[in-house]
Amino acid sequence: MKRTAERVLGIIGLVLFVIGGGLFAIVSVMQQSGALEDSFEEWIQAAEEQGQTMTDEEKEGFEIAAEYPYGTYALASFLAAVAGLVAVIIVSKKSVASGVLFLVMIVIYGLMVGLWMFLLSFLPILMYLIAGIISLVRRAPKDPVSLQE
């Protein structure tokens, strides 16, 4: 069986995880160099200069966002991409193993990044979820029975 749907969904999810992982890696580098916190402070100052007042909760939100473990998010995204690549490669020969790999990677990704980032990564997770379910549920067609007259 060709398993085109599973491949396409897996590749789309893989690409989205690589893009997300790259963005998380960039933010992680900014965080390690202190540039992320500086950017947040500049945004706060610019808002105050324009006459917008920021509440303490909003300022605290910026501080919390500056402390997120973006390196872990990047690692989780790249692991999900690698697992997706393996699943896409083996889907034709071992569809059940491929489906299990897609679904297990969703769980591992969710455990690594937590609920908030899990929800932000909705689209690649949805691609993996659909590909995993299709891989497990869809069976190869049986040989047609020939009618002898």
Q: What's the main sheet like? A: none
Oligomer: single chain
Could you tell me the strand content as a percent range?
under 5%
**Whole-number average pLDDT?**
86
Poorly predicted segments: none
List its traits.
149 residues; 6 helices; 80% helix; mainly alpha
Task: Write a short abstract of this structure.
By secondary structure, the protein is mostly helical. It has helices at residues 4-33, 35-49, 56-66, 70-90, 95-120, 122-137.
Structural summary, described in words:
- This protein has 149 residues and is mainly alpha-helical.
- The chain has a domain at 4-33 and 70-137.
- It has helices spanning 4-33, 35-49, 56-66, 70-90, 95-120, 122-137.
- Helix 2 packs antiparallel against helix 3 (56-66) and helix 4 runs antiparallel to helix 5 (95-120).
- The two termini are 30 Å apart.
- The model has no long low-confidence stretch (mean pLDDT 86).
- Residues 2-110 form the DUF4064 domain.
- InterPro entries: DUF4064.
- Pfam families: DUF4064.
- This is DUF4064 domain-containing protein.
How would the blueprint of this fold be written?
Layout: H1 4-33, H2 35-49, H3 56-66, H4 70-90, H5 95-120, H6 122-137
Helix pairs in contact: 1-4, 1-6, 2-3, 4-5, 5-6
